[in-house]
Amino acid sequence: MWVDQQQRPICFLPHLPRSTMRFTVVPVAMAMLCVMAIHADVKPQKDFNLQKFTGKWYRVGLAYDSPGFAPYRDKLKATMGIITQTPDGHANLTMWELSPLGCQSLTYQYNKTSVPGEFIYFSTRHNIEKDITVVDTDYTDYALVLKYKVFNREYTQVALYGRTPRVRNNILQKFKALALSQGLSKESILIPPLAENCPITEPGE
Hints:
The protein has an 8-stranded antiparallel barrel with strand order 3-4-5-6-7-8-9-10. The protein is globular and about 35 Å long. It is of the alpha+beta class. A hairpin with a 5-residue loop joins strand 1 and strand 2. The protein has 4 helices and 11 strands; from the N terminus they run ββαααββββββββαβ.
């Protein structure tokens, strides 16, 4: 592993001749350390303020390379969510998503950690804890969020949220650069179309 001029860790595995590869197995630990080093390089938004972060957000971009996600890539839509702060300083995210049953809402509880901008939540679907880090936000236009989990192997997911369904091109480029820096491929980066009539009415209307 080495670090480029922008201080991003870059991991590589040694190239082995074809004849050698028949008898040599690259240690799994080496690959694990690479992924851990990339993840460890991510820092949360400086002086993160949860109260300023609450409110309406649209998930307008997603970068994810899990094989289990592949069948759903073409069905992904940009959806809306509402973040609220609990009295004890945690965060709740209510997200509306299209499903075969129509538009449904899901609520996630993000528990704060000792580091502002870093959260953990328990996934009932996967029965594991996942890390959530707000990497970059200006609170008024966009937020870059990284989700990290260990499920058979390490998986990293980078999401772009906007206060409106569309964000400026320079923000899209920030999102793509972060995804690539985390080892995700260009093919894993999606800018999905907006979901229509989901939610059917805006919350509070």
